[in-house]
Q: What sequence folds into this?
């Protein structure tokens, strides 16, 4: 089973290491403006939500791409853009319902997360596990177990 | 250049002239960046004897070569100027997101000189730099200023600003960035206010180049593992923030209480990191690139309203709490929020109020002067004085001068708990001798982050805190290494788990400058000596390397440190000798030559 990049905003401290290491891996410079992941900072609530491509099962970006430049990586199932075929029309950017395809100007007309070929750099560096890369069943099972434990402790408090 | 961006931005507010200068490579190597590099520039360019509020004073916002990279907690910059509180050099340190943005915009340092006729802010968008009117923001608090300026510039811009305290030239006004992070101490915000500079907005989209990317990445990962497995950086700070120290320091009998009259506070548990985590904590916050995340996002119920903000940190909890005998954590948090909003240093605020309370108890101050009775433990009075101080209203106008000027004015200078007119932080040095020497010799006046010997004396318990033996050497090592950490742009808190051996590979991989173990620490020593030279040139001398008489003459009366005073003179002689300074604290010509400072 392929893995999913799982985001847990509750654990995110807003350190933006994900942006830094992403930009470095992809551009060889530290430059969050060119990162494929972005931590949204909610000023008043002081909350943080990392946002990156969710690798949709039926990606609308792929559907609209006029040159067939968007496909799926066989190893990771990531939705990827072929630099050779991309003409930079940015239609994919316009239709992505989540805003997770971005344009970085002339050098990178459109970019998105490609899961780093199966070893996402952001996950490796995330200090609080707000980002994890897991088989989907492992993620759901871990959550089931956590909730089951709460469930159990509540039930055991009550005399039947 | 690698690591460094290679450009200094200089803005003259008197003439409106904006220039970009090439960063000198040798100077960058010798002084590293941030605190070191900015201090060198201040030393070279500021005419001796310049008044801090004179337009000729410089205000330098300085990032380091690692700032903005993934290097461990490398979020920091320094705000360097001549302090209106101390008359000495000020280098005030802050993290958050803004410091890195200066680098992404293409600069290592922003030097502001002169004074604008009207309130202005600076808008730095990559190579485009403008001076804009700040009339719409003048008189506004930090959060509103931040929002208004982002509306006028770019929502992605990161903002440095002053609040009302900076506008009103409160001598301990800070400079706030990213709404909640403070370059808090020594009155750097008052200098900004004196220049009619309300804010600096920065947006950058340029990358920082790294000389050896693979080695750099390895070093970052290695350090991250050390940070995560270190007891302080991996467990204590993430769980409880810096406030974990309240109970620790109190148990050593050195939590200064009621203006340093006592070393133990009965209300410690109520204002502890544990209580904060239980009652007020919403989540942890990390500055850029920080795996520790000591920042506390907190929420209080204040007069029926839910309020959310950041902090308080340990030193603020202490200054607004134990120092004033106050054990109401929600009120302390509210006052801390206000300090962020007004742009005011909570350490000097709390300790100045504590001094006023003692003057009041002594009958030197009366309600006629203060407006309200001042008593230890009275939170409402502190709240009232916070607002009045920021606005310089009534007695607040006197508090806004800091405790040294306050106590001096009322003829009781010994009741100011300060060195070089800057108030002490949250460790009674009678029970930690090294930090006493640290307060006395700190180049920016009473301060814990110039030479945090508490790490060795208390936190790691590596040396006996009560003995003065060996403390001069310990302090010198800590002071010099701190200069390095502050100058590369990393956070001092990493030093609970990282040493020079961990910083060196980061700095070399980033810059390619080829530092060695020796040359790196020598750069730290050079920076320390340069700051010293600045202060000597401004007329400071051995007699300023002193402590409040209470700490030298009145022994602590209870707890583990009972019976102790600070053995300063003995330590100071040894310190000067080990530093290679003469008996008046002047660096010898051999020392200056060895450091390239002659």
A:
């Amino acid at each position: 089973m392929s893995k999913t990049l799982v985001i847990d905003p509750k654990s995110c401290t807003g350190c933006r290491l994900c942006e830094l290491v992403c930009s470095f891996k992809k551009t060889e410079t530290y430059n969050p403006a060119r990162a494929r992941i972005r931590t949204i900072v909610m000023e008043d609530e002081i909350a943080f939500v990392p946002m990156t491509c969710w690798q949709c099962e039926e990606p609308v970006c792929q559907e609209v791409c006029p040159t067939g430049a968007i496909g799926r990586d066989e190893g990771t199932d990531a939705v990827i853009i072929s630099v050779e075929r991309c003409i930079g029309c940015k239609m994919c950017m316009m239709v992505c319902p989540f805003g997770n395809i971005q344009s970085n100007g002339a050098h990178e007309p459109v970019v998105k997360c490609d899961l780093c070929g199966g070893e996402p750099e952001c996950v490796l560096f995330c200090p609080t596990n707000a980002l994890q890369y897991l088989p989907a069943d492992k993620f759901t099972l871990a959550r089931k177990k956590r909730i089951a434990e709460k469930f159990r402790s509540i039930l055991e408090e009550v005399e039947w | 250049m690698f690591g460094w961006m290679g450009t200094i931005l200089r803005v003259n507010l008197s003439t409106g002239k904006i220039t970009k200068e090439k960063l000198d490579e040798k100077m960058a190597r010798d002084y590293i960046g941030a605190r070191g590099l900015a201090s060198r520039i201040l030393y070279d360019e500021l005419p001796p004897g310049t008044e801090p509020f004179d337009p000729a004073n410089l205000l330098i916002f300085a990032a380091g070569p690692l700032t903005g990279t993934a290097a461990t907690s490398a979020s920091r910059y320094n705000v360097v100027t001549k302090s209106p509180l101390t008359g000495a050099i000020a280098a005030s340190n802050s993290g958050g997101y803004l410091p890195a943005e200066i680098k992404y915009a293409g600069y290592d340092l922003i030097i502001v000189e002169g004074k604008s006729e009207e309130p202005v802010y600076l808008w730095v968008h990559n190579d485009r730099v403008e001076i804009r009117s700040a009339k719409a923001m003048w008189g506004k608090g930090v959060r509103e200023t931040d929002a208004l300026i982002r509306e006028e510039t770019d929502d992605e811009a990161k903002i440095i600003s002053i609040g009302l305290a900076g506008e009103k030239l409160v001598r301990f006004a800070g400079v706030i960035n990213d709404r909640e992070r403070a370059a808090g101490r020594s009155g750097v915000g008052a200098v900004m206010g004196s220049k009619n500079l309300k804010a600096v907005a920065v947006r950058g989209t340029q990358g920082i180049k790294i000389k050896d990317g693979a080695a750099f990445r390895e070093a970052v990962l290695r350090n991250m593992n050390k940070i995560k497995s270190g007891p302080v950086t991996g467990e204590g700070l993430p769980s409880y923030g810096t406030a974990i120290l309240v109970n620790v320091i109190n148990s050593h009998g050195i939590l200064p209480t009621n203006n340093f009259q006592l070393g133990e506070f009965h209300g410690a548990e109520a204002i502890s990191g544990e209580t904060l985590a239980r009652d007020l904590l919403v989540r942890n916050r990390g500055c850029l690139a920080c795996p520790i995340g000591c920042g506390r996002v907190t929420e209080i119920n204040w007069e029926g309203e839910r309020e959310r903000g950041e902090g308080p940190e340990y030193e603020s909890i202490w200054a607004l709490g134990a120092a004033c005998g106050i054990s109401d954590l929600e009120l302390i948090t509210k006052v801390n929020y206000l300090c962020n909003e007004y742009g005011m240093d909570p350490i000097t605020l709390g300790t100045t109020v504590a001094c006023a309370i003692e003057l009041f108890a002594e009958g030197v101050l009366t309600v006629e002067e203060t407006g309200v009775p001042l008593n230890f433990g009275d939170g409402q009075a502190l709240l009232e004085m916070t607002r009045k101080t920021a606005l310089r209203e009534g007695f607040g106008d006197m508090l806004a001068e800091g405790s040294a000027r306050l106590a001096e004015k009322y003829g009781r200078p010994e009741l100011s708990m300060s060195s070089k007119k800057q108030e002490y932080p949250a460790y009674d040095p009678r029970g930690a001798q090294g930090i006493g020497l640290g307060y006395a010799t700190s180049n920016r006046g009473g301060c814990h982050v110039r030479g945090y010997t508490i790490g060795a004396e208390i936190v790691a318990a590596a040396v006996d805190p009560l003995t003065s033996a060996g403390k001069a050497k310990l302090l010198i090592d800590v002071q010099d290494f701190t200069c390095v950490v502050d100058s590369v742009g990393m956070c001092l808190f990493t030093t609970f788990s990282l040493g020079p051996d961990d910083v060196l590979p980061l700095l070399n991989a980033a810059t390619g400058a080829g530092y060695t173990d020796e040359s790196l620490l020598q750069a730290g020593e050079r920076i320390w000596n340069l700051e010293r030279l600045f202060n000597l040139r401004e007329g400071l001398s051995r007699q300023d390397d002193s402590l409040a008489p209470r700490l030298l003459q009145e022994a602590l009366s209870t707890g583990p440190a009972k019976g102790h005073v600070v053995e300063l003179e003995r330590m100071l002689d040894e310190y000067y000798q080990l530093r290679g300074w003469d008996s008046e604290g002047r660096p010898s010509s051999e020392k200056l030559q060895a450091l390239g400072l002659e």
